[in-house]
Amino acid sequence: MNGKAPKRIYFLAICGTAMASLAAMLKQKGYQVYGSDSGIYPPMSDFLAEEKIPVFEGFNISNLDPAPDLVVVGNVISRGNVEIEEILDRHIPYLSLPDALREFCIRGHRSIVVTGTHGKTTTTTLIAWLFESARRSPSFLLGGIPNNFGRGYQIGTGSDIILEGDEYDSAYFDKAAKFLRYLPDIGVINHVEFDHADIYNSLDEIKLAFRRFVNLIPRSGLLVACADHDTVLEVCQKAFCPVETFGFSEKALWRPDQLRITDHGVRFAVLKDGDVLGEVEVPVSGDHNVRNVLAAVAVAHHAGIPFAEIQQGLQTFKGIKRRMELKGTAAGIEIYDDFGHHPTAVQETLAGFRRQHPQKRIWALFEPRCATTRRSIFQQELVTAFAEADGVLLAPVDRPDKAPPGQVLSTEKLAQDLRALGKDAQALSSVESILNYLLSRLKSGDAVITFSNGPFGYIHDKLLTALRK
Fold first, then answer.
1. Which among 170, 354, 407, 443 has the fewest CB atoms less than 10 Å away?
2. CA neighbor of 324 nearest in space, from 334, 341, 336
3. Can you identify the CATH homologous superfamily of domain 325-468?
4. pTM for the predicted model, two decimal places
């Protein structure tokens, strides 16, 4: 950075959740921040406007005049982007997002890093809320918008920073997993499965990344690991720090007991090494969320938060936008939005909802949009994923040209396989055709759950508008 502390920090591809949140954090620290992106849309466009962070629409070399002191480069940027080419030509200093987060926010704090193929955002948010409700005033950065806070970041006055640790790569010039840059003192691993087929070639490559993460935790730290998954236990085998396990497994240190569904979510007794610490009630559903809660309880307990305060924090947890978020009810029909796109996440979300609402007819709307689900690698797993849905409507594969030739998911075959299981399943050509099909069949008492890691053509708003008419 030319030996000088930066004053003006430019975010290239600013509209990613983590990029926008880090920009807001650095603005709060006193830096002048701004950035550019393409395809700017809510909720991040609204968030950046509320934070009064200027954003250029589209990439253009004129955006770099006058030159910023530092550029934070998002991992969606690749060589050939006109701005990164200009940055390299002009020798403007740059960092990846995880490196910037480490240097500007993590150093000097106890770093609590939540990782895993699934459950990162929910578990990170639960931990952040437990620390906040216990008056620990943590800093945090996560990949969603928690309803308890209203934003995905906070610069607290306490000594802890709580981070969602993504296994995706850091930048075009740094292909290592983001979580390897976060200096973990306490680490959480929820699950280890194959994902991110554009980055990893095999499950073994993903397991190697997690083993490297485990190897970063100091002897004085803690690793909290899910005992329900052999892959997690495998990557934790050579940990140099204490390991506390959680899950439904009999061998887990932290376990649920007397689990039951309530009108507000789930209620269960928390066992540590067979001893009952007390009961908790949390407004979540599904076994996956019970595991998330146990991981958060283990971290909070290790940090010295009294169990009574943990109970209070869990009871007042309000969830996260796009994690089974109820978007609205119209004509007696509930519309939910979920970020789930990996088959396991879809399957567990639907199973949890089915247990909570056994009598409802469930319609699952799925957009194959991420780098993994647009490929055929999970063709058969997706059939199992929708087992608890009564109807499944499939949107076209987003940007099929991004998948290798001959490896594009077949939504027609997926619909055919689901129909063979008795589902009302259709592969449709557009959001509008999904709406038309659905509106002709919906009945009062039905539930619609949309699964996508993108805006899905704002299908939730369109559906609610149509139903209210």
1. 443
2. 336
3. Mur ligase, C-terminal domain (3.90.190.20)
4. 0.87
Query: Residues with Cβ < 8 Å from 452, sequence gap 6 or more?
Result: 339, 341, 366, 367, 369, 395
Domain with CATH 3.40.1190.10 in the chain: 108-315
Q: Give the count of beta carbons closer than 10 Å to the beta carbon of residue 13.
A: 23
Q: Indicate if the pLDDT at residue 284 is higher than 80.
A: yes
Q: Facing residues of 392 across strands?
A: 364, 425
Give me the sign of the Cα torsion angle 279, 283, 288, 292: negative
Give pLDDT tens digits for 424-451: 999 999 999 999 999 999 999 999 999 9
Residues 130-141: tens digit of each pLDDT: 999 999 999 999
CATH architecture of 8-99: 3-Layer(aba) Sandwich (3.40)
Output the CA–CA distances (angstroms, integers) from residue 384 to 343, 349, 408, 423, 428, in the order listed: 8, 13, 19, 12, 20
2.60.40.3080, 3.20.10.10, 3.40.1190.10, 3.20.20.70: which CATH number matches 108-315? Answer: 3.40.1190.10
Q: Can you tell me the distance from the alpha carbon of 189 to that of 199, in angstroms, rounded to the nearest whole number?
A: 20
Spatial contact of 285 and 265, defined as CB atoms under 8 Å apart: yes
Alpha-carbon dihedral of residues 268, 279, 122, 199, nearest 10 degrees? Answer: -60
